[in-house]
Amino acid sequence: MSEIYTFIDMETTGLDYETDQIIEIAAVRTDLTREYGRLQTFVHLNHGRELSEEITKLTGITAEDLLGGIHPHDMSVMIDFFAGTDSTFVAHNAPFDLAFLAEFETWPQRFVCTRALAKLVEPTESASLAAVCARHGIDLTGHHRAMNDVLATIEVFRKLAPIAEARGIEYRNVVVNSPERPLTFVPFNAKVVEVSANREG
User: Three-state DSSP class for 150?
Assistant: First the structure.
C-alpha cells in the first residue's frame, strides 16, 4: 500500500505559538498519485483577540472573514480526524505548524519538514517556500493563503524527496536549527540537525 501523506499549512495571528493563534488551516490527504480529500477552514478569533493590519496585508484575511470560522478546538479535532493515524504529516517549516497544533495535543508520530528537506538537499540556497518554488518552477500564486501553500508544498516534496533519497539523506522527522533561524519548538520524535550560517529563509 502506498504511503499516505497529510500536507498541512496554516496562517496565524503572529509567530509566537504561545501567544498567537491559528486563523486559517488547510490540508490535503494524498499518496502523491491520488488525492483522497481536501480541508480548508477559517478559525474564529479567540475572545479579546484582534487581527493586525500587518497580518491582513500579508494574507488578505480580514477579521470579517473569521466571524463564521470554526472554533479552534473544533479545528484541531477536525484535523486529527482528517489526517487519521495512518498518515505522515508534511509541512513547510513543520516546527512552526506543529507548535501551534501541540496546544491541542496533536502529536504526529511521523512528519516531514520540507523546509528542512530543502536545506539538506540545497544547503547553500534559501529554504523559504517562495525561494524553493522559484528555483524549481513551482507555482506559488496566492502565497500566504493556506491551501495555496499546501499545494506548493506537495510539489516541493515531489521534487526534493527523490533527490534526498538518492543521496541517502535522512529527512523524515528531521528539523534544522541554524543561527539565522533558531528553533523555538522541537516536534515530538524530531531529530535536530545543526546547519551552519549561510543563505537562509
Answer: helix
Q: What is the average pLDDT across 78-89?
A: 94
Classify residue 93 as left (phi > 0), alpha (psi -120 to 50) or beta: left
This prediction has a pTM of 0.95
C-alpha cell at 6: 497529510
What residues contact residue 179 under an 8 Å CB cut-off, 6+ apart? 196, 197
Domains of the chain: 4-194 (3.30.420.10)
What mean pLDDT do residues 110-122 have? Answer: 97
26: number of Cβ within 10 Å: 20
Strand partners, 179: none
Task: Determine the pLDDT at residue 106.
Answer: 86
Is residue 199's pLDDT more than 90? no
DSSP lists the bridge partners of residue 26 as 9, 40
Per-residue pLDDT band at 201 (split at 50, 70, 90): low
Q: Which of 132, 152, 155, 131 is nearest to 141 (CA)?
A: 152
- Where does the chain show beta strands of DSSP type E? 4-12, 22-30, 35-42, 87-91, 111-113, 174-177, 191-194
Grid coordinates belonging to 11: 496562517
